[in-house]
Specification:
Layout: H1 2-50, H2 59-91, H3 97-122
Helix pairs in contact: 1-2, 1-3, 2-3
């Protein structure tokens, strides 16, 4: 009986740790996705501002796209930062699974939006091949 009472809290802590570890890994993937999109955008932007006609654009168009990409990038960064904060809060017992799941979902929706935008502006639709429409963090019981 004593052994069962001590084991139950340990299982709860391990379950929370596993869920938060999955969340952290998932957010890391979204972070890497956004980082790759921004690196691709930087290469395109440098080239397009030096020779906009090469991409059938004007410099005004390229600058307008750059503003949109930067705003979306900041939104993605905010979503990722919120998700990281929620992971820490969840591990400290200050947030619920559903709150953490919501933060992860928001980050998983914003990172692919950035990739889609960069793909559209650069004309590189190959970027979209491996972007899932939706993603869900696996719940650990």
């Amino acid at each position: 009986m004593k052994r069962t009472i001590l084991t139950l809290p340990l299982l709860i802590v391990l379950g929370c740790a596993t869920f938060s570890q999955n969340a952290r890994k998932t957010i890391y993937g979204a972070d890497q996705l956004a980082d790759a999109a921004m690196k691709g955008w930087a290469v395109y932007y440098h080239d397009a501002t030096n020779n906009p006609a090469k991409y059938h654009e004007t410099l005004v168009d390229v600058e307008g796209q750059h503003i949109q990409v930067n705003l979306t990038s900041k939104s993605v960064g905010a979503s990722l930062s919120t998700a990281h904060t929620m992971i820490d809060a969840y591990q400290a017992g200050l947030a619920t699974k559903s709150q953490l799941q919501s933060a992860v979902d928001a980050a998983l929706q914003s990172a692919p939006q950035l990739v889609r935008m960069v793909a559209e502006f650069t004309g590189n639709t190959n970027l979209l091949a491996n972007i899932p429409k939706t993603a869900k963090l696996k719940h650990v019981k």
